[in-house]
Amino acid sequence: MADLSNTKRNPLAADTDPTDEELAEVMSEALDLAMARKQESDAWMRRKLAEAVADARARDVVAAP
Predict the structure, then answer these.
(1) From CA 47, how far away is CA 53, in angstroms rounded?
(2) What's the pLDDT at 1?
(3) For the chain, what is the HEC assignment?
(4) Is it the case that residue 38 has pLDDT exceeding 70?
(5) Which residue has the higher pLDDT, 15 or 53?
(6) What is the pTM of this model?
(7) CA–CA distance, 25 with 10 (Å, rounded to integer)
(8) Higher-confidence residue: 15 or 59?
């Protein structure tokens, strides 16, 4: 049997499974991207909520006699 540790690994080969290290790196990058998107989304929601509250208060002031 051939010693596979001396052969170069071709990650683009159809029958090649990713290594644990490669999977960990991809998952880490995916987590970083997901967290960055969540922060952007949270900031957008906070801005929209603040706008809605300001609009509601402005309408309340105009409607008050």
Answers:
(1) 10
(2) 41
(3) CCCHHHCCCCCCCCCCCCCHHHHHHHHHHHHHHHHHHHHHHHHHHHHHHHHHHHHHHHHHHHHCC
(4) yes
(5) 53
(6) 0.60
(7) 17
(8) 59
